[in-house]
């Protein structure tokens, strides 16, 4: 069974006349690292909001069709029940962190769920090791750097053991080094826990190397959803995504000129292997 399943789902915000999500049919499976790509305003954040019931329960609007999380309808199931299965870190994690210290921030969700103290301590220990924030436990979340806040937000969601962890443009507030570290952490979470990671991100060069699949969205419609190798070779990806690594454009042009007729290599190693094979 898919973790998240869309059935002809459309949505428009109350004030808008056109649909911001248009007839979405999408299946999200377990243990995948998924890049959500699309131009600004294409509907990435809106799609993310519909993955745990915030749309249409929290954001007012009109919808058609349905979305299921583990078989639970996102209209009928209370948001807290959905958000423990599909956790979202929003673009500005500062607004999401509410406690006076990091340890309490991480414990907060479990306290609400009535998790016994001993089990709580065990889980907190595990996530602080995984996210490498041991040294921040006594600090106030609002005093931390963007990258540190990002880690704390991830830890506070991860501790609830969601099957899907979604990040909306995590690196927009981070420098490239910090962004790379966060992506590495997310890959580690997928590998160690089998969590599906969905990440909306303009810095393709950082995410593509670790991604399994790409979802390409344009004007509220899913144009492509497939393995990254397949999507990168599609005209839709080549035409819609202007900030892609330049090497893809080079190979795409070579394909057009019939000088190259295989799949565009998606890693540095694969590119070098091909270049070496030329002589
Ligand atoms: N709360 C809202 N109320 C009304 N319209 C909204 C709201 N949030 C987003 N929209 C509109 O929905 C469309 C999709 O916006 P969305 O934020 O999902 O795009 P995005 O792909 O995340 O863009 P970006 O890359 O800039 O973050 C846009 O036309 C936007 O103006
Ligand atoms: Mg957005």
Give your account of this protein's structure.
This protein is an alpha/beta fold and 279 residues long. The chain has a domain at 245-279. 39% of the residues lie in helices and 21% in strands. The protein is built from twelve helices and eleven strands. It has helices at 44-49, 54-58, 79-83, 102-113, 117-131, 146-158, 176-193, 204-207, 228-232, 235-240, 246-256, 268-277; strands at residues 4-13, 21-24, 27-28, 33-37, 61-69, 72-73, 86-89, 164-168, 196-200, 213-218, 221-227. The strands form two sheets. Strands 7-8-9-4-10-11 form a six-stranded mixed beta sheet. Strands 1, 2, 3, 5 and 6 form a five-stranded antiparallel beta sheet that branches. Helix 4 (102-113) packs parallel to helix 6 and helix 5 runs antiparallel to helix 6 (146-158). The protein is globular, with a radius of gyration of 20 Å. It starts with a strand and ends with a helix. The mean pLDDT is 92. The chain binds adenosine-5'-triphosphate and magnesium ion.
Number of strands: 11
Q: Which value, in Å, is the CA radius of gyration?
A: 20 Å
Overall mean pLDDT stands at 92
Q: How would you write the strand order of the largest sheet?
A: 7-8-9-4-10-11
